[in-house]
Amino acid sequence: MAIVFEEKKKKWILETINMGYVFALDKEGKLKNVYWGSKLPRFEDYPEVDDLVVMDRYTWDDEFSVRGEKNNVEPCLKVEYYDGVRDVVLNYVDFEIKGNQLIIKLLDEQYGLSVKLFYRLIEKYDIIERWVELENSSDKEIKIEDIKSASLYVENSEKVRLNYLTGMWGSEFHLRKEKINEGSKVLESRVGKTSAYMNPYFAIDYDATEDNGKVYFGELAWSGNWKISIQKRIYERIAIIAGINEWDFTYILEPSKKFMTPKFVFGFSEEGFSKASQNLHHYQLDYILPQDKAHKLRKVLYNSWEATTFNVTEENQKILAEKAAKIGVELFVIDDGWFGQRNDDRAGLGDWYVNKEKFPNGLKSLIDYVKSLGMDFGIWVEPEMVNPDSDLYRKHPDWVINFQNRPRSVERNQLMLNLAREDVKQFIIDFMDKLLLENNIDFVKWDMNRHVFESGWPEVESERQREIWVKYVWNLYDIWKYLREKYPHVTFENCSSGGGRVDLGIMQYADQVWTSDNTDPFDRLEIQEGFSYAYAPKIMMGWVTDWGGKDTYPLEYRFHSSMMGSLGIGADLNKFSEKDFEIAKKQVQLYKEIREIVQEGYQYRLSSVAKERYFAVQYLNEDKSEGVIIYLRNPRRFGLFDRVNLKLKGLEEKSIYKIYEGVGEEEIEVKTLSGKALEERGIIIEDSSKEFFSTNKIKHFYSRVLKINKI
Ligand code: GLA
Questions:
Q1: Cβ-proximal residues to 298 (8 Å cutoff; 6+ apart), any chain
Q2: CA angle 613, 619, 625 (to 5 degrees)
Q3: CA-to-CA distance for 427 and 412, rounded, in angstroms?
Q4: pLDDT in tens, 187-201
Q5: What is the number of the ligand 1 atom nearest to the C-alpha of 517?
Q6: Residue 578 is inside which H or E element, if any?
Q7: For residues 467 and 401, is the Cβ–Cβ distance under 8 A?
Q8: Does the pLDDT of residue 696 top 90, yes or no?
Q9: 585 and 566 in contact (C-beta within 8 Å)?
Q10: Angle 146-187-602 (CA atoms, 0-180°, nearest 5)?
């Protein structure tokens, strides 16, 4: 059994296939975390409370740290009671096991604050989900100042290293690795959304590699302000505290009301980073993504944004649609500019009626045309925003997030609707209903292009204004939930100026995400590499565009870069030559041949683009019979005689595999070897030297897609 309570030791043991997680009651009736790591052979092998390293008079290792008593770990819970008391004293009440779920009940009896700690085990992927529910069982209000989802502890050591993802607009998901020293390291967002600056993912390792060593990792399912603190003292275990950011946050919990935190998901791999990310990917596919579409293949889409920007018209979209259909695109998406007076980014946001000058026949004529070409139809919306120059803002200036008597700062010329308000939520539901009921739409790209600045909500009493940060996100989720249930045929893509709102929270409602507005096929590789640590390839949309210059990158390179996840095309097809169309058609066909393995398979990073002369990613299906390698050169580190020895991963040692290239019937054999040989001696990829001697030109951007087949 996965969850065991040892009565004698008052110890809860949670086990997945390879991981053990244990906490126990100490003599004073406090819950102490005693272990997180490799699963041990016997229950009695796990440590006891007495085995903890306690170095001082303060307490450490609390399973749910609070501001109160002698705790010295960053608190998960800070409250103020009606009489000014800020000391939280939680005592254990009892527990409940329901299948793979454990609930621990705690109580601050004097003030009637009940706390439930939830644990859900995902055995197959060595993952545990944790969240917390607070309930006010008193007759007075309780002011919550901080409520995190979990505190965790990992082994302290000289070698301990933190891995996280950082970036900015156009440069998201850059992986950082750094030594953890004493003090606190804070990963967070304070801009009202997940943000491109940091992503709510962390991993802690002790010099692990892709294939070896212990990796402890976690992700938070929250699309608003979040925080993950890593706190180290000289001798104790390292504490990790994660949840909603307490910055500018308070919440008044009324009598008999509850507050539920987002899930914090954490896991453990003893086989390095590769296994850690594979487990996260497959956990996301099986447990997080909307299950009706989680295992359906993502369609190859064309998005006309980069071709026509705001100048969309029925005519120019029809021309692009025809061209997209020619190369095998399955879903045609019109982006910004189809509504209101939206001729640039200065006006029209909020006015969600079809622009009659651009679409005199409404959207119907275009949609029918797209469908007659055999493609699905998709549309862009940015429901959370309003331009000051819009009918909506003129009618409802009070609907935006603002402080009275203070400026309303714009970003990208837009203000943010206050989604925490019920009338605003209803407005969004109503216009989305109208759009989706009146038009035969199969796909929605939901964008969100700014940060929260002046976070006021003047219509509510001042002590409730800070609730805006969480109520906004709850309502956002409610809307997505409503739309998904009502329109099950629609696929939803989440975008926030690229990858500014990618997290497990929004992924419970979105089928895929727009990774970055940066579509330079080389620059993107580092973004995609970082993304792969935390999120599944299937949800990672990558478009083939003209970024970086059509002459710089061969069209094949651009396609191969975008094939690492779900493929899209955003290039201006009006500028394509006949040859470009031919290449594009062939590449789309190639992608369709490999996509099941890319989207549903197991991903192995064969190199790091940040460190190597090339970036290569391998994908393998579940039964290890078929695979794909996508190889792209990094010319920043090239050698003239470029030969790369690529060692494959995850194959069955004794089986024989054929490595070959080709689309359709075409088959150019590269090598046929045993799985063991492909892992040990590898294959050689040769690129520029031959080209150089015959033409005196080096192909800076060289790429290949190889197929793997067990014979
Ligand atoms: C954002 C998105 C782009 C595009 C534009 C439209 O920048 O990230 O993909 O949709 O908005 O205005």
A1: 491, 511, 512, 538, 541, 566, 567, 595, 599
A2: 130
A3: 22
A4: 999 999 999 999 999
A5: 8
A6: helix 578-600
A7: no
A8: no
A9: no
A10: 115
Ligand 1 environment, Cβ below 6 A: 305, 335-336, 380, 447, 449, 495, 497-498, 514, 517
pLDDT tens digits along 212-221? 999 999 999 9
Structural domains of the chain, with CATH: 3-288 (2.70.98.60), 301-382+419-448+473-601 (3.20.20.70), 614-710 (2.60.40.1180)
Q: Copy the structure tokens of residue 85.
A: 């008391």
Tell me how far apart the alpha carbons of residues 318 and 314 are, in angstroms, rounded to a whole number.
6
Alpha-carbon distance of 72 to 69, in angstroms, equals: 9
Crossing angle of helices 555-562 and 578-600, rounded to 10°: 20
Within 13 Å and on the Cβ side, how many CA atoms surround 1? 12
Q: Are the C-beta atoms of residues 232 and 156 closer than 8 Å to each other?
A: yes
Buried b (16+ CB within 10 A) or exposed e, 30-49: bbbbbbbbebeeeeeebebb
Q: Whose CA is nearest to atom 2 of ligand 1?
A: 497
For residue 313, give the 3-state DSSP assignment: coil
Q: How many CA atoms lie within 13 A of 241 on its CB side?
A: 26
Token readout for 517 is 């507005």
CA-wise closest residue to 539 among 586, 495, 476, 480? 495
Residue 688 has pLDDT above 70, yes or no: no
Question: Percent of the chain having pLDDT more than 70?
Answer: 97
Report the pLDDT value the prediction gives residue 48, as an integer from 0 to 100: 93
Copy the structure tokens of residue 8.
């004698």
**Amino acid at position 205, single letter:** D
Residue with tokens 């949840």: 243
Ligand 1 atom, smallest distance to 449 CA: 1
Q: How far is the CA of 504 from the centre of ligand 1 (A)?
A: 22
Contact 635, 691 (CB under 8 A): no
Residue partners of 452: CB distance under 8 A and separation at least 6: 191, 192, 193, 401, 416, 469
For 207, the token pair is: 């010099």
**134-143, 542-551, 558-567, range with the lowest pLDDT:** 542-551
DSSP per residue, 274-298:
HHHHHHHHHHIIIIIS-HHHHTSPP
Token representation of residue 159: 């070698």
Catalytic residues: 447, 517
DSSP lists the bridge partners of residue 479 as: none
Residue 694 DSSP symbol: H
* 183/407 Cα distance (integer angstroms): 37
Q: Which atom of ligand 1 is nearest to the CA of 380?
A: 10
Calculate the CA dihedral of residues 513, 515, 518, 520 and round it to 10 degrees: -110
Residue identifier of the C-alpha nearest atom 5 of ligand 1 = 336
The tokens describing 543, both together, are: 């478009």
Identify whether the C-beta of residue 204 lies closer than 8 Å to the C-beta of residue 163: yes
Mean pLDDT of the region 520-539: 97
Q: What are phi and psi of 481, to 5 degrees?
A: -60, -45
Tell the residue number behind the tokens 């594979």, with chain if given.
Answer: 278
The Cα–Cα gap between 84 and 272 comes to 48
Distance 514 CA to ligand 1 centre (A): 9
Question: What is the rounded distance in angstroms from the CA atom of residue 132 to the CA atom of residue 104?
Answer: 10
Distance CA 541, CA 701 (A): 21
Of 535, 342, 523, 543, give the one whose Cα is nearest residue 449.
Answer: 342
As given in the structure block, the two tokens for residue 577 are 């030559």
> How far, in Å, CA of 532 to CA of 513, rounded?
13
Look at ligand 1, atom 12, and give the residue with the nearest C-alpha: 336
